[in-house]
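*** Protein under study ***
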Amino acid sequence: QVQLVESGGGLVQAGDSLRLACAASGRTFSSLVMGWFRQAPGKQREFVAAISWKGGTTYYADSVKGRFTISRDNAKNTVYLQMNSLKPDDAAVYYCAAGRFGPMNTVVVGREQSYDYWGQGTQVTVSS
């Protein structure tokens, strides 16, 4: 079993930056693909970013490409989401997810069903 705990959310102004962190329990962190999803009020949860086991491969939603960076520190069992140039449209609850799945591709990493474990979410609010 893997438990995920997100932190780092908050209220910022448009153009500001935030770094989210997701701490994972368990010894299998380095074998997990990690992802970030978000859900805004009244909208479906959507994929934001994903990173491979060793961090060598990353995927991003088009809406955040060039502004967000996902990274991981396997020694600390933690995955990060650095969010720069935040926009009001980025406001949402951000969820960390972990999964054990095979070859990564854009479709697989963007699908909620690919992930086995989810955190409770952290709120990000962006004022204009």
In short: Residues 98 and 107 are 16 Å apart (CA to CA). Residues 106-109 form the longest helix (4 residues). DSSP finds one helix and eleven strands in the chain.
